[in-house]
Amino acid sequence: MRKALSMFMLVVLILGVLSACGPKREETTGTTDAGKTEETAKPEKLVVWEDKDKSGWLEKVAADFEKEHGIKIEVKEVEMATKMRDQLRLDGPAGTGPDIVTLPHDQIGQVATEGLIAELSVDKEVTDRFSESSIDAQTYDGKLYGLPKSSETPILIYNKDLMTEAPKTMDDLYAFSKDFTKGENYGFLALWDNFYFAHGIIGGMGGYVFKNNGGALDAEDIGLNNEGAVEGTQYIQKWYTEGLFPAGIIGENGGSALDGLFQEGKVAAVMNGPWAFQPYKDAGINIGMAVLPTLPNGEHVKTFMGVKGYHVSAFSENQEYATKFLEFITNDENSKYRFEQTAEVPTNVALLDDPAIKDNEGAKAVAEQSQYAVPMPNIPEMGQVWDPMAKSLQTVVTGKSEPKAALDSAVEQIKANIASTK
Hints:
This protein is of the alpha/beta class. The protein has 2 domains: 43-152 and 306-374, Periplasmic binding protein-like II (D-Maltodextrin-Binding Protein, domain 2), CATH 3.40.190; 155-304 and 380-420, Periplasmic binding protein-like II (D-Maltodextrin-Binding Protein, domain 2, 3-Layer(aba) Sandwich), CATH 3.40.190.10. It has helices at 2-28, 33-40, 58-69, 80-94, 108-113, 124-127, 132-137, 170-180, 195-204, 227-241, 254-263, 277-282, 319-329, 332-342, 355-358, 361-370, 386-397, 403-420; strands at residues 45-50, 72-77, 100-104, 139-140, 143-144, 147-152, 155-159, 186-189, 208-213, 216-223, 267-272, 287-290, 304-312, 374-375. The strands form 5 sheets. Strands 3, 6, 13 and 14 form a 4-stranded mixed beta sheet that branches. A 4-stranded mixed beta sheet has the order 8-11-7-12. A hairpin with a 2-residue loop joins strand 9 (208-213) and strand 10. It starts with a helix and ends with a helix.
């Protein structure tokens, strides 16, 4: 009897073990709730907001991503510079926004502070694809918030029919301008009353907006009235006081006046960005593009660099796969394809020696100048810099103020503006 009972208990124990094993075997086949959760984590689609008139290239790349991952990509065009951020503020919290947006890097600090975009977690091999400065531009408060898609910075654009080759130094360009500037003709023009362009000279002479302490910008340390900034502004002043720049390229209408003179064939060279290439070509100007000449102190012109990037919305429920899409569209192959379709210069290090970039005069010039450029500060305090510096520079170039006094006044106003926002 005892033996029979033992056999019975053994059978019950075996059945219990087999029963316990059953669900575990089913889980590995993906039929359990856990398996279903893993499967449903992958979304049916991702919504991407791309810049106005820049989405055509995504058709092929989106199809490639869908083929590889089984996720559809829905693309909507939203103007990047002003509307993208404002629309995300509305649609994100409402649950009708995108998974992915594209923004100029100088907006990152503001949108990150507002909680509109998510911090990215990617492997080092991903960030190593890009130039260090472009990754810095996508970083705020030590955290990565985007992957670069393109960069732009002012370069020297010249009329090959008026200037046979690009000068190597600003001293050479100055000498050329002194000889060429007569009547309505000018050797070289730049919007140096505009701080975006003037920073190249001020920065190259030793000025800076905010002190960079190991990748973190210190908004309390402003270097726009230090010795180098004053020297740079004095150099800018010289071009105006000696009549090398016309009075008409000052203020809001300065850009259109400069473009008009160059397109009429009255200017040998200008400092401008890649956005001007096509309009100048359309005007029939035989343009050449080159890195900006070195300054009298031997340093390179330290232009501002703007980096456009892709970001994951903080409101997206699909952040993991949205990040995968960012990694995919910014890889070397797709970045090269995007350049070929949009002419916007990527920051992928491997593409610098690619014939697509190397043999393109404009792209090569932008890529080379970018090596000497600094990303525009992306912290919110930068918004308090533009207006005081513009007013300061305009008083200098119109002869109403001397550089040191004008810059001291600008820095005082910047500090007051920043303090008022806290």
